[in-house]
Design goal:
Elements: H1 15-26, E1 29-30, E2 34-35, E3 41-46, H2 53-70, E4 75-83, E5 93-100
Amino acid sequence: MRRLIHIPAAPALSLPLLAGLLLGACAATDSGPVAGFDGSWTISKRGIGAQQPGQLTRSAVQEATAHCAASGKRFRQLDLKESPPGTLSSHAESELKFACE
């Protein structure tokens, strides 16, 4: 005597939900200015697709300059770390540490 086991089918994902999930996975990330303990600030950016670190750094410098200008101060770069897309990460990354003086 054989017994048949019924396995329910997995629910189908709707096209808008699937598109949203795919776009969310590819979205660029940006930390915005984050205050450090020593009075410095850091902006971290992660690109999408073929975006290069230089593009991310330019954007971070513009954001940092605007952040400092909003408080009547000038931007000064303290440190910069850039990572191109490659084997360890498929996305370019840029981390800018700065001070407002």
